[in-house]
Automatic annotation (TrEMBL):
It comes from Glomus cerebriforme. InterPro entries: Lambda_DNA-bd_dom_sf (IPR010982), Toxin_antidote_HigA (IPR013430). This is Transcriptional regulator protein. The keyword Coiled coil does not apply. PANTHER family: ANTITOXIN HIGA-1.
Amino acid sequence: MVREKLPPIHPGTILKKEFLIPRKISQTKLADNTGFSLKLVKEVCQAKKPIDAEIAFQLGNYLGTSAELWLGLQQDYEQERLEEILERKVKKNKISSLIGRKTNGRVRKHT
């Protein structure tokens, strides 16, 4: 049985779906209560900006979690993304070595 790997989940997605929506906290309210700009909050929630130490600290204080939670989620996300990229490169290299490499417009057979 082949296990399908789920795509990495950005901590901003977790923030939005697991904390803000269930608690009925708007992104505007989060920005107002943490001192973040609304633009920053939106970028984090849209997975366009990573959660750094300052953001993690403020989120921890406001949401009753820890900075370590948010930093750990960010680190896990980045590690999983890197693993995906490296796995794709390995697969691409294996395929290239199986079908041969182009040399001067010709395909060279792998022996």
